[in-house]
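Progress note, sequence design subtask.
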């Protein structure tokens, strides 16, 4: 069965790069442009993994994670932050919110695939 990955980023280019990378590895991709839209997507269909940006309009990545973790549909889904931010205090905040992992932009395609396979197969 194909695993579905939800990618949430306000940058079309980043969403396209994530989608292209993971589709090539056999994953199905759905997209959202901010955290609020991402929550709607996560609630409307089963998702195996979420890759979310930190800095977005409407709802940022931390707020998405906090809301997803409160929702029964998002409680057990691995969530990876993919962001340009690298400050240790932000990483700690992400972990406290419930993030499973953290990757920095620009991302390495092989690393992204490796993380996806480790987290969801």
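Output:
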């Amino acid at each position: 069965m194909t695993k579905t990955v939800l990618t949430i980023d306000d940058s079309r280019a980043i969403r396209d790069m994530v989608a292209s990378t993971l589709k090539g590895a056999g994953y199905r991709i759905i997209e959202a442009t901010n955290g609020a839209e991402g929550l709607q997507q996560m609630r409307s269909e089963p998702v195996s993994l979420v890759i979310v940006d930190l800095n977005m309009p409407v709802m940022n990545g931390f707020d998405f994670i906090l809301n997803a973790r409160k929702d029964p549909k998002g409680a057990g889904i691995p969530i990876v932050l993919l962001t340009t931010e690298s400050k240790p205090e932000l990483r700690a905040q992400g972990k406290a919110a419930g993030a499973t992992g953290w990757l920095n932009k620009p991302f390495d395609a092989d690393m992204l695939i490796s993380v996806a396979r480790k987290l969801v197969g």
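The longest strand covers residues 4-8. Work on this subtask will continue into the next period as scheduled.
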